[in-house]
Structure formats: structure tokens, C-alpha cells
Amino acid sequence: MNQSRSEHIEYLLKKAGFKACLEGEEPDIVVFNTCAVREHAKNRAVSIIGQFASQKRKDGFPIILVCGCMSQIYQKELLHHVPNIDVLLGTHNLEEVPLLIQKRLEKQKDTQPQLAFWSKPEGQFLETGYSRKPGVSAFLPITYGCNNFCSYCVVPYATGPQRSKPMELILEELQKILEEGFKEVTLLGQNVNSYGEDLGLKWGFEKLLENIEKLVEERPSRVWIRFITSHPKDMRESIVDLVKESKVLCPYFHLPIQAGSNKILELMNRGYTKERYLEIASYIRDTIPDASIGTDIIVGFPEETEADFQQTLEVVEKVQFEIAYTFAYSPRPKTRASSMVDSVPPQEKKRRLLELNQLVRRVYQKRVEKLRGKTVALLIDKQEKTFSGRTPSNLRVFIESSVKNSLKPGDMLLVKITDIRDGKIFAEKA
Ligand code: SAH
Ligand code: SF4
Fold first, then answer.
1. Cα(26)–Cα(158) distance, integer angstroms
2. Domains by residue range for the chain, with CATH
3. In angstroms, rounded to a whole number, what is the distance separating the alpha carbons of residues 232 and 265?
4. Does 92 score more than 60 pLDDT?
5. Residues 413 and 429 sit within 8 Å (Cβ to Cβ)
6. Is the CB of residue 79 less than 8 Å from the CB of residue 101?
7. Contact assessment for residue 60 and residue 89, using Cβ atoms and an 8 Å cutoff
8. How far, in Å, CA of 371 to CA of 77, rounded?
9. Can you give the residue ranges of the Radical SAM core domain (predicted)?
């Protein structure tokens, strides 16, 4: 999400006549687009911005601009931690970035930073224009903000209510992305399943996917479409059905469960039970056997007992997630959970995280073992020691060295899985 927003900021700055520095050049302006979702992200950002801010040249350059979720949440408090910030703005004022920099340049001797924050939600989400680096994959935001107020999460406070991008604008953006030659497009939103609800659309996400499918199918070359994140409370069988029937939608569902105990799910205000989650996960497994399911899990949420944690492990065993991002709970400002007692000690959170990660790895290895000998489609997107790419179901596959010379990033080909070593999947051209 932040990478995509940074691409939008770069677009706005270039439009206003600024240009990106080349490697090794000294910048006149440094833009920090920050995240506040976990305490760790915030601490790292403060430390990195502080480093840059303390190395300003005598002429006051580079100008330091900080925007994004962290500055939206902490606002002026951040200026105490990092006093050398020149421009500080939140999450909804990105269009003002060039103007605020211009103002700062005009008042270079003035030590007062330029500030801009939103106080009430804006109208429609009409963000358009992204300066994407040429490559294989592109992001396309379809919503911004979130209405769900999961009790641990700062995102709704930092980004405001969900606002959906009008469908025509998304299709226009997609058209541009396709013309730029990208092979894979990921639609972004905190809860893509609720796309369009704020525009008064019923089944808006299905309609959007159908329109995207029509547009992409008319193209001569193949393009894959993905979407993240699916919220289990709004995930529907009809979305799975659409993916099953589709030639362009990839069968990867990022469906964060967060916890396996109904007590914790309720305290988290997630809006679904473990049983409903398992039902939709089985529907995915039964309908599209080659699909992958990814997830996010938090351990050590307030009041999570060992028994609750064991239920999370049981769900991981049952669903056999191909991908899992796991986190130790950290209290975030303004959230409901931050007023609860953070009852699980840090050492215990660490232990649970370790145990969970070990299980996630075991489950992944067991699941991918089934791929041995199979032929799968691959989109090559990396060239390191060897070429690698991802399958439609989002699994990374490494190409055995014999064919690598005839490949390049962006190639789509059929490969045969030859080996699985240490959890890494290897293949050769089919
Ligand atoms: N919209 C997505 C999640 C966005 S935040 C969804 O609903 O699933 C990305 C992930 O960060 C979350 O899924 C959660 O697992 C993690 N996260 C958010 N707040 C957290 C907190 N306070 N402590 C630990 N992990 C957190
Ligand atoms: Fe945060 Fe929940 Fe919204 Fe995801 S759905 S961004 S976890 S409040």
C-alpha cells in the first residue's frame, strides 16, 4: 500500500517539475512515507528519519518531508522526536506535497515546518497517476481507508473511513498499466471484498472483477490479476467462483485469520468465528484445489491464554496455509485494545511466535510436497543467482540452472516441478 502511495507522490512531484535523484547524487529533498501499523515500524522510521535530519548540509538541505500513517497519528509529537523535519503531513493531503515543498523552499530561512493534516474524511477516492518503475508487477489501489475498527488496529484512525475509487477510474488506470507492459497487477485495499459499499454498490467487488476480466481478456498478451486483502467477514463464495471461472484472476486468497480462538476474535472485533473462517477456507480448497491461502496472525493479544493460542495452531494445521505473516501483538495508539491490559509478557509472545513460525514452516513444506512432478504456470519476476517467478497461486519457484539463459523477467511459461529442497521449490521448463 505504501509503495503504491510513494509511486503516487513521485508522480505528483515529477508533474510539478521535480526530478528523482540518481544513485550517488545528493538529494535536495527527502520524502519519507511512513507506516504506523506496528510499533516496530514506527520505531524504525523515527530512527531513520532522525539520521537523515541530523546530517543536513549547512545550507539547510536536504529538505525533510514526512508523510503517511505515522505522521497522521503522531502529528506534532513527531517534531519533538525529530526536530529537523521541514514538512509534515498526514495521509490525505498528498496532492499538497509539491506546494508545501515549494513554500518551504521560499521560506528556507524560516525554521517553522510546513504542516498539513486532514481532520474530516474527504469525498471520493480519486487518486490517480503513479510513477511506477518499469518491471513485471504493478500495484493498483482500489480503496483507501477502513471502516472495520479491529480493536488492535490503527489503520482506520490513520487513514479514515473506506473510500472506493470509482470503477471507471480503476479501469482507466488499469488500461495505462497494461499499455506500460506490466504482466501482473495487484489490486489493493484493506478489505477489497467491501469495494464499492461506500459508493452504494451491491456486490461491487464482483462487478469490478468482471469488468477487469473483460478489459484484460481483450489484450493480445496474457496478464495476471491479483487482489489483497480479503477480509474473512466479507469474503463470499461468489468471489471464489469468479476466480475459478476466470482466465486472468489468480487463485491466491490473502485471508488474514489473526487468531484461532473465538474469544480472541471477538475481543479483536473481527466479525467472524473460527467456524465461518474454516467454512470459507474449505470452500476455497474444494472449489480451486490449486489455490493458495495466505494469512496474517497475531500472537499475544490481550487475554490470549495458552489454550487460545493452541486453537490458533489447530487452525493453521487445518487450513494448511501456504503463506503466513506472523506478528507479536503491540498496543497501538487510539485503539480499543490499547486500553486493555497487555497481559501476555514479551518473552511469552516471543515463544508463541517461534512455535507458530515453526508450525507454519512445517505445514508449508507438507503442502508444497504435493507439487512434486506437477506442471505449473510461472511468471518470471526475479533474476538473482538464478531466475525465479511466482505461480498463479503465489508460490515462488526457482528455475534449475540449465534453462536460465533463455529467460528474462516478464516471461510466462509452463514449468515442471523437479525438486523441493529446504522449503524451496525448483523447476525446469516443461
Ligand atoms: N486490512 C488487513 C490488515 C492490514 S494490517 C486485514 O484486515 O487483514 C496488516 C497486519 O498487521 C494485520 O493483518 C495484523 O496481523 C498486523 N497488525 C495490525 N495491528 C497490529 C498490532 N497492533 N500488533 C501486531 N500486529 C498487528
Ligand atoms: Fe485494520 Fe481490521 Fe481494517 Fe484490516 S480490517 S485495516 S486489521 S481495522
1. 32
2. 2-17+24-116 (3.40.50.12160), 137-369 (3.80.30.20), 372-429 (2.40.50.140)
3. 11
4. yes
5. yes
6. no
7. no
8. 52
9. 132-367
Task: Give the Cα separation of 355 and 171 in Å (integer).
Answer: 44
* DSSP secondary structure code for residue 292 in this structure: E
Q: Is 40 helix (H, G, I), strand (E, B) or coil?
A: helix
- The pocket around ligand 2, CB under 6 angstroms, is made up of 146, 148-150, 153, 155-156, 190-191, 231
CA distances from residue 237 to 193, 280, 281, 285 in whole angstroms, order as listed: 11, 7, 10, 12
Stated pTM of the model: 0.96
Q: Whose CA is nearest to atom 4 of ligand 2?
A: 190
Alpha helices in 204-331 (DSSP H): 204-217, 237-245, 262-267, 274-287, 306-319
For residue 180, give the C-alpha cell. 506500460
Q: What is the pLDDT of residues 138-156, one digit of tens each?
A: 999 999 999 999 999 999 9
Q: Are 216 and 223 in contact (CB under 8 A)?
A: yes
What's the CA-to-centroid distance between 231 and ligand 1, angstroms? 11
